[in-house]
Design goal:
Elements lengths: L10 H9 L4 H10 L1 H9 L1 H11 L6 H11 L7 H9 L1 H10 L4 H35 L6 H4 L5 H21 L9 H11 L4 H31 L5 H8 L8 H4 L2 H10 L2 H9 L2 H10 L7 H5 L6 H7 L23 H7 L25 H7 L6
């Protein structure tokens, strides 16, 4: 009797294997390697793509994943009237994946953006925890480095994925291409979108914004360093001189670098990843080509003025899980994080959502579970 192989399994079992794959690259590799699995996929395309798309994300954030998928179907730039209608339907959208059949047109954007979000989620952990370790060293805080740098916990990965999904949804709805003025309607709709969330939800998005600003600042600094090391006629300096309306390396242009970063962020995660993974002259050309003034668009929408209503709602500590002594009951994706309760215990937050400031957001205080938070030593501080 021959030994059973993947190829000899029944189509039903093969479909069951494919529906549990969470990696797009692994899924594609399997289809390329096995004509039999490809035939099973052809006959169950929407069913398998649905599971592939959702398997990339924490099951507790499917509403946000679904919202991102629906937003991605709207051609950019999204007119303010369309973004307004989309925001008005957000409550209905949350139920959409449960009430309607999920088509390939919905799943395709998720299969495309999923690996990019996964890349950022992992990069975020390394970047933020490195800063937290450095902070502990400078302040002589006792830290458990093994637990501090452990892999993501289930609640943690849900929180970080959710914040990146909401950031990407924001970018898709409110991106305005170069050469087009940002009118008041865009600002109003952007703020209206964020008002759908509570203050701690908005602070999670602000943490992601700060992380991206930090990573892009490093790219800008690397470009300047490379220009300083080269001769006056180097290719990278020529690129800077060719920028309009002013030389990218001039003092007047440098004052606008925060706005340039803001514009690059507004183009969304796939483009930001392309910038971060590009190197040398290619990376410099990509940055300079998309250096446009955008008046801190995302950060203005994230300001406290845009979220006064949600502040009062979210700061009801009622049965608060943190008593200021370090006691904390559970890590729940739908509850306020330990970091938020710890940082805001006994006071009203005053600077959440503002333009990046050195402080708590640098090390991702909104996302870490109790295990990692205790290992960081931060609970020992006031």
């Amino acid at each position: 009797m021959s030994t059973p192989t993947l190829e000899t399994l029944t189509p039903e079992v093969q479909a069951l294997i494919m529906r549990n794959i969470g990696s797009v690259s692994a899924f594609i590799s399997l289809l390329r390697a096995s004509p039999r699995f490809y035939q099973v996929f052809r006959h169950r395309r929407e069913y398998l793509l649905t599971h592939l798309a959702f398997n990339q994300f924490h099951p507790g954030i499917i509403d946000d994943v679904w919202t991102l998928a629906k937003a991605s179907q709207i051609p950019q730039p999204v007119p303010p009237a369309d973004s307004g209608a989309f925001i008005s339907d957000l409550a209905l959208l949350d139920e959409g994946h449960q009430q309607h059949s999920i088509t390939t047109s919905i799943m395709a954007p998720l299969c495309k953006i999923g690996p990019t979000i996964a890349w950022f989620v992992e990069d975020y952990r390394h970047s933020s925890l490195r800063l937290l370790t450095d902070l502990g060293t400078r302040m002589e805080i006792k830290q458990n480095h093994d637990k501090l740098h452990a892999e993501y916990g289930l609640t943690e990965i849900g929180r970080v994925q959710r914040a990146f999904c909401r950031f990407q949804t924001f970018c898709h709805l409110f991106f305005v291409p170069e050469g087009r003025e940002v009118d008041l309607d865009y600002h109003i709709q952007a703020r209206r979108y964020l008002l759908e969330y509570l203050a701690d939800d908005v602070e999670e998005i602000a943490c992601i914004r700060d992380y991206l600003v930090r990573r892009l600042w490093a790219v800008f600094e690397a470009i300047e360093e490379r220009a300083l090391q080269g001769d006056p006629d180097s290719a990278i300096r020529k690129l800077g001189k060719a920028c309009q309306p002013v030389n990218w390396f001039s003092s007047s242009a440098k004052l606008k670098h925060p706005e340039y970063i803001e514009y690059i962020m507004s183009k969304g995660l796939p483009f930001i990843r392309e910038v971060l993974e590009s190197d040398g002259l290619i990376g410099a050309e990509l940055v300079m080509k998309h250096s446009f003034y955008r008046d801190l668009f995302i950060s203005h929408a994230l300001s406290d003025e845009a979220n006064k209503n949600s502040t009062e709602i979210s700061l009801d500590y009622g049965a608060g899980k943190y008593d200021g002594e370090g006691d904390y009951v559970g890590d729940d994706l739908d509850a306020m994080s330990l970091g938020w309760l710890w940082a805001n215990y006994g006071r009203i937050p005053s600077d959440w959502g503002r333009w990046p400031l050195k402080g708590l957001r640098d090390w991702g205080y909104m996302f870490w579970d109790s295990r990692r938070f205790i290992a960081s030593g931060m609970l020992d501080l006031e």
